Structure formats: structure tokens, C-alpha cells
Amino acid sequence: xxITIEFSPLVDRLILPIHYNSLIxxxxxxxxxxxxxxxxxxxxxxxxxxxxxxxxxxRIYGRYFINSETIEFTGPLKLHISSIHExxxxxxxxxxxIKGKIQLGSQQCELLRIDVEEKPKFARPLHxxxxxxxxxxxxxxxxxxxxxxxxxxPTERDWEIQIFTNLWxxxxxxxxxSSDPAYLAGxxxxxxxxxxxxxxxxxxxDTVIKGWTGxxxxxxxxxxxxxxYDAGLxxxxxxxxxxxxxx
Length: 247
Hints:
Elements: E1 2-9, E2 14-17, H1 21-30, H2 34-42, E3 45-47, E4 50-52, E5 55-57, E6 61-66, E7 70-83, H3 86-99, E8 101-104, E9 107-116, E10 126-130, E11 137-141, E12 147-151, H4 157-174, E13 188-193, E14 199-204, E15 207-212, E16 215-219, H5 222-231, E17 244-246
Antiparallel strand pairs: 1-7, 1-9, 2-7, 3-4, 5-7, 6-7, 8-9, 10-16, 10-17, 11-12, 13-16, 14-15
């Protein structure tokens, strides 16, 4: 399930830190019923040592300009949010409608409308565009024993492997699809319109994260495509990464 919220600053502009993902995440958690928020934030859905929250969100779309440390938006603005859990989005919408306003950090915006988006038609393959960067990574151990995070790029074969391994783990956490990861052996994600300018280096709180925007050709079994559409592609979806739309 996916919704789009449209809103506008109550004053001339909405001023946020350039790296505002954690503000959006906090805004989502703050507008859920307490039991849902607590379960989503503290538990998620486990698979081995991993926990999946199964929601993601886009960048803020609208007119903006960037200063040295802030980004200034002028309305109207749009934000897309999706989740495989309909009760999460239903709770979120209920809270927004009751309040009628949106609080981002210390600033308030007027809620203009909320739309439930139609699911895209499935095809193999199809083209998708990122609404937030896709990130996949491995944690490596250096010679001195220190941990190092390596972020993959779409030009590397392991980028695709990591994306589909992550997607298969999500399916297993939900108890869906084949238990054999080879089920996705014929799947692919191929850059169509992706260049150096699509590299995004972002911060989530104190963590630097590298991700990629752009347009990709995506070839997946139907149930895995809709899982990727609702929950996000790649890692760190609940931190605002991996949202896609069809084009």
C-alpha cells in the first residue's frame, strides 16, 4: 500500500537540514498508534539477526533551494510513504486527519490532501525510477581488525546480488515465496539511465550512507516486485532508501 501526502509550509518556506531523513522517519513514528509505533520501531519482523520494518518513504518533492547546511522548500510539497502493513498506513492517515497539520522538526505545515496510490500494473521486465536512493553494502573487516562499510555501485555485479539477497530475506521474514534463494536466479536489475550524478552521499544521524538514484530495468517474479514496491529495494528502507515507482 502506498500513500501520497501533499502539504504546504504555514510560513513562507520549510527549512530543514540537508540530511532530513531522520526527521521524516520521526514524523512517521510520531503519527502512529502507540502499540503500532512501538512494535514497528523496537521489533519489526525478524529474520535471523536482521529486523525488517517493511516501510519506506521518498524524498520531499517540490520547489527548493540548498544553502550550505539547510534545504528550503516552498509549497506545495509531496511525500510518498509505502508499507506492506496496511494497518501502519491506516493509523498514520488517521492521525494526520485528526491533527490537520504536519510537524517536521520545529516547523508546522498545513495538510492539503492524502491520496492512496493505485498499484502499478505488473510486467516482466519493467522500468522503475527511484523516489529515494537505493543502497546496498557489506561490512568488511580490515587488516587491523576494524570494521569497514563498503557500499556497492550499480556497475558492480555484487550490487544486483546484494539487492536480490536482501529481497529474498524480506520474503522469508514474511513467510512468502520459495525458501530457495535460487528462485530469483533469473531476476535482474539493470541500470538504464544512471550516471555519476546519481550517486547520493547522505547522512542518517551520524552515519554516512551512499546510495544511487536513476532509472533501472527490473525483472522480478510478480510477488517479489510488489514486495520491492511496497517495502523498498535494497537496505535501510525505513531510513528513507529504496523507494521506486514504475515509469
